[in-house]
Automatic annotation (TrEMBL):
This is Probable peptidoglycan glycosyltransferase FtsW. One of its GO terms (cellular component) is cell division site. It comes from Listeria cornellensis FSL F6-0969. It is an enzyme of class 2 (transferase). It is a multi-pass membrane protein. InterPro entries: FtsW, FtsW/RodA. It is found in: Cell membrane. GO terms for molecular function: lipid-linked peptidoglycan transporter activity; peptidoglycan glycosyltransferase activity. Pfam families: FTSW_RODA_SPOVE. Its EC number is 2.4.99.28. Keywords: Cell cycle, Cell division, Cell membrane, Cell shape, Cell wall biogenesis/degradation, Glycosyltransferase, Membrane, Peptidoglycan synthesis, Transferase, Transmembrane, Transmembrane helix. It catalyses: [GlcNAc-(1->4)-Mur2Ac(oyl-L-Ala-gamma-D-Glu-L-Lys-D-Ala-D-Ala)](n)-di-trans,octa-cis-undecaprenyl diphosphate + beta-D-GlcNAc-(1->4)-Mur2Ac(oyl-L-Ala-gamma-D-Glu-L-Lys-D-Ala-D-Ala)-di-trans,octa-cis-undecaprenyl diphosphate = [GlcNAc-(1->4)-Mur2Ac(oyl-L-Ala-gamma-D-Glu-L-Lys-D-Ala-D-Ala)](n+1)-di-trans,octa-cis-undecaprenyl diphosphate + di-trans,octa-cis-undecaprenyl diphosphate + H(+).
Length: 413
C-alpha cells in the first residue's frame, strides 16, 4: 500500500512537470490584462447607468475565477473520455436542446435572442456550443480515419450536424457566432486528413447548402426575415468601406473606433485617459475594447493583447503537431482555429478591415460565457499536451502508479 502511494505521488509529480507552462503563463497575462482594461473601459458606462464604477470589473473578475476553475478541471480531466460515444451523444442532443431553449425562452440583447436565464445565472449557450462542436467534430473525424475519404460515411454526418447547429444560431439571429463555428468546423475538416479531392467535393456541397439557405431565408415569413436581415446589419456591411459617408448612423461606431485607435499613437494617452469611452464609442468594454486599449496604451497595449492571443494560437498548433493521437491533434487545431478566427473578426471589425459582427475579443472583452468557453479550450489543450509529453517521457500513468516489486536476492549455492 505504501509503495503504491509513493508510485502515485511520483506519477503526479511527473505529470505536473509535463504541463505547458508557457501557454498557461500567457493565458494568465492576457486575462489579467483584460481585467484591467475592462475596468478602465467600463467605468463611465457603469456610472452613466447609476451603478458602482467597478460593476463590470467585479462581474468579470467573478467570471474569470469560474473560468480558471474550469481551466484547471479540463487540464486534469483525461481528454480521451470526451471521445466516448455516450459523451458524444450527450454533446449532440445537449447542443440542439440548448439552442432550441434559447429560441423559445431566450432573452434578447443587441437585437439577438442569444441569452438564457438559469435562475441567478445568465449564460450565452452559443459560446459553449463552440466548445462542444470542436470536441464533437474532432472525436468523430478521429474515429473515421480508416474511411475518412468515404463521403457518405466519413465526411457527411458531422458536416450535416454542423450545418444544423449554425442554422439554429442564425435564427437567434447571431451571424457572427454562426460564422465562427462554421469556419472552425471547416478548419477541423481541413486538418482531419481528407484528400484534396474529398475536400473539393465538400466545397461543392457547401456552395449548394449556401444556395439552399439563401432560398430558405427568402421564403421565411416577412417578420422573421426582417428580424434576421435588419437595416442595422445591412448598414454594417455597406458602411465599413467608408463609414464617414454615414458617420452619424451606420458608420458611427467605426468612426469613433478610428478616432480612438488613431489618437493612441505609439505610447497611448495613458491608462484610464481614453476620451472615446466617455459615451462616444458604444460597446467600449466588449466589441471595441481593442480601440480603448489602443487609445490608452498605444502600440504596447496592442502588442500585449494581439501578441498574447497569437502565442496561444501558435502554441495550440505546435502542440497539435507533436501528437500521434488524431483526436488530441484535432482538438488543438480546432482550438487554434476558433480563437484565431474570433480574434481576427473582432480586430478586423474594429479596424474597418471587415464588416462589424459584434463578437468579443478572446480573453480580453467583457463577457462571462466567452471567457469560460475559451478557458475550457485552453484547459483541454493543456491536458492534451501534458498527456503527450508525459507518455513520451515516462510511459503510461498506469505503469508509474504500479508499485515496483522488490528484487529478490539470489540464493547462493
Amino acid at each position: 500500500m505504501r509503495l503504491e502511494m509513493i508510485g502515485r505521488c511520483v506519477c503526479l509529480k511527473k505529470m505536473l512537470k509535463s504541463y505547458d507552462y508557457p501557454l498557461l503563463a500567457v493565458y494568465l497575462i492576457v486575462c489579467i490584462f483584460g481585467l484591467i482594461m475592462v475596468y478602465s473601459s467600463s467605468m463611465f458606462v457603469a456610472i452613466n447607468k447609476g451603478w458602482d464604477p467597478a460593476t463590470f470589473y467585479n462581474s468579470q473578475l467573478k467570471n474569470w475565477i469560474i473560468s480558471l476553475v474550469l481551466l484547471i478541471f479540463f487540464a486534469v480531466f483525461p481528454y480521451k473520455i470526451l471521445q466516448n460515444n455516450k459523451m458524444l451523444m450527450l454533446i449532440m442532443f445537449g447542443s440542439v436542446a440548448m439552442l432550441l431553449l434559447v429560441l423559445v425562452f431566450g432573452d434578447s440583447a443587441n437585437n439577438a435572442q442569444s441569452w438564457l436565464e438559469l435562475g441567478p445565472i445568465r449564460i450565452q449557450p452559443s459560446e459553449f456550443i463552440k466548445v462542444s462542436m470542436i470536441i464533437y467534430m474532432a472525436a468523430i473525424y478521429s474515429k473515421k480515419q480508416r474511411y475518412i475519404d468515404d463521403f457518405n460515411r466519413g465526411v457527411l454526418p458531422p458536416v450535416l450536424f454542423l450545418v444544423v447547429i449554425c442554422f439554429l444560431i442564425l435564427l437567434q439571429p447571431d451571424i457572427g457566432t454562426a460564422a465562427i463555428i462554421f469556419l472552425t468546423g471547416c478548419g477541423i475538416i481541413m486538418a482531419s486528413g481528407m484528400r484534396l479531392k474529398t475536400i473539393l467535393k465538400l466545397v461543392g456541397l457547401g456552395l449548394l447548402i449556401l444556395a439552399v439557405l439563401c432560398v430558405v431565408v427568402f421564403l421565411l415569413p416577412e417578420e422573421l426575415r426582417s428580424k434576421l436581415i435588419t437595416t442595422k446589419r445591412i448598414g454594417r456591411i455597406t458602411s465599413f468601406q467608408n463609414p464617414f459617408t454615414d458617420h452619424g448612423a451606420s458608420g458611427y461606431q467605426l468612426v469613433n473606433s478610428f478616432y480612438a485607435i488613431g489618437s493612441g499613437g505609439f505610447f497611448g494617452q495613458g491608462l484610464g485617459e481614453s476620451v472615446q469611452k466617455l459615451g462616444y464609442l458604444p460597446e467600449s468594454h466588449t466589441d471595441f475594447i481593442i480601440a480603448i486599449i489602443a487609445e490608452e496604451l498605444g502600440f504596447f497595449g496592442i502588442l500585449i493583447t494581439v501578441g498574447g492571443i497569437f502565442f496561444i494560437v501558435l502554441r495550440s498548433i505546435t502542440n497539435g503537431m507533436r501528437l500521434n493521437d488524431s483526436f488530441g491533434s484535432l482538438l488543438c487545431y480546432g482550438t487554434a482555429t476558433l480563437i484565431g478566427i474570433q480574434a481576427f473578426i473582432n480586430l478586423g471589425g474594429a479596424s474597418g478591415m471587415i464588416p462589424l459582427t459584434g463578437v468579443t475579443l478572446p480573453f480580453t472583452s467583457f463577457g462571462g460565457s466567452s471567457l469560460m468557453s475559451m478557458s475550457i479550450l485552453v484547459g483541454i489543450v493543456l491536458n492534451v499536451s501534458m498527456m503527450n509529453k508525459f507518455q513520451k517521457n515516462y510511459g503510461s500513468e498506469k505503469d508509474l502508479a504500479k508499485p515496483r516489486k522488490a528484487v529478490q536476492p539470489r540464493t547462493q549455492r
